[in-house]
Design goal:
Length: 251
C-alpha cells in the first residue's frame, strides 16, 4: 500500500498488514505519529529482515533481490540425485533391426541344417547299402540259391571294404601284390578285425581272377568289412567323425 493515511483507515493506533506482489518491486508504508513524525514500516519480505535487524539499527545496504519472470524461473530440483528424467522425451525404440537380424540368423540356421540333412542322408544310404551287403553275404540260403548272384555281391562287398580302407589311408599301393597288401594290413591294421586280412585278400584275389569264392570266404569278407567299419569309427575323434559322416559319407 502506498500513500494511504492511517487516519483514513480508522483508529490510527491499530496495525495493518498489506500483501505486496513481486511486480511492486519495493513498497513500504509510512505512519505519522504526533511528536515523532513519519515512521517507515517495511512490508516487502526481501527487505524487512535487513531493516529490522536484531540490534534495532537496521541496515542501509540494499539486499540482493532477484525478480524472476514466469519464463525465467530456474528449474526445480528433483529428488533423483540430479539426474534428468527425460524418459518422456525419448523416442520409441524400433525393434525392426532386431527382427531382421533374427530372421537372417534363422534363415542361415535353417540352411545349415538343410545341408547337414542332405549330407547325413548320403551317409545313411552308404551305411544302409553296406549293411545290406553284409547281411545278404552271411545268409547261407542266399549263397545256395542258384538265382542269387554271388559274384556281384562279392564285388559289392569288396568295393565297400576298399572304400573304408582308403578313407583311412590304408588302400593298396601302386604295384603292390594282393598277398603283400594283406600282410601289410595285418601288420598295421590287424586290430580292426578278428579275421585275418591275408585270408580276406586271398578271397578277393580269387574273385578278381574269376574263380569265385566259397561261402566261408564270402563270410570272411563280410565279417572283416563289418568289423573294420566299427573299428575305424571307434578310433576316430569327434572332428574326424564329423568329417567321415558329413564329408566322406561313410558312417
Amino acid at each position: 500500500m502506498n500513500g494511504l493515511a492511517a487516519s483514513s483507515a480508522g483508529d490510527p493506533t491499530l496495525r495493518y498488514a498489506a500483501s505486496v506482489k513481486d511486480t511492486a518491486r519495493h513498497a513500504w508504508i509510512e505512519v505519522y505519529y504526533d511528536y515523532i513524525g513519519w515512521l517507515q514500516f517495511e512490508c516487502t519480505p526481501a527487505y524487512y529482515e535487513y531493516l529490522y535487524a536484531t540490534d534495532g539499527q537496521g541496515t542501509s545496504e540494499r539486499p540482493h533481490y532477484t525478480d524472476y519472470h514466469e519464463d525465467d524461473r530456474p528449474p526445480e530440483e528433483d529428488d533423483d540425485d540430479g539426474e534428468d528424467d527425460d524418459t518422456d522425451d525419448e523416442e520409441p525404440r524400433s525393434f525392426l533391426p532386431l527382427i531382421i537380424a533374427g530372421g537372417v540368423l534363422l534363415l542361415l540356421l535353417a540352411s545349415f541344417m538343410t545341408v547337414l540333412g542332405v549330407l547325413r542322408g548320403k551317409a545313411d544310404r552308404t551305411v544302409y547299402r553296406r549293411r545290406q551287403h553284409i547281411a545278404r553275404a552271411v545268409d547261407e540260403a542266399n549263397y545256395r540259391d542258384p538265382r542269387f548272384d554271388t559274384r556281384a555281391l562279392t564285388r559289392d562287398l569288396t568295393d565297400d571294404l576298399f572304400e573304408l580302407l582308403e578313407s583311412i589311408g590304408a588302400g593298396p599301393e601302386p604295384g603292390e601284390l594282393t598277398r603283400g597288401y594283406g600282410e601289410r594290413l595285418a601288420r598295421d591294421y590287424g586290430h580292426l578285425s578278428s579275421v585275418s586280412p591275408v585270408e580276406v585278400m586271398r578271397a578277393v584275389q580269387k574273385e578278381e581272377f574269376g574263380h569265385g569264392v566259397s561261402y566261408e570266404e564270402l563270410c570272411a569278407i563280410a565279417v572283416y568289412t563289418d568289423e573294420a567299419a566299427k573299428g575305424i569309427w571307434k578310433g576316430l575323434s569327434r572332428r574326424d567323425r564329423f568329417v567321415f559322416r558329413y564329408r566322406k559319407h561313410l558312417f
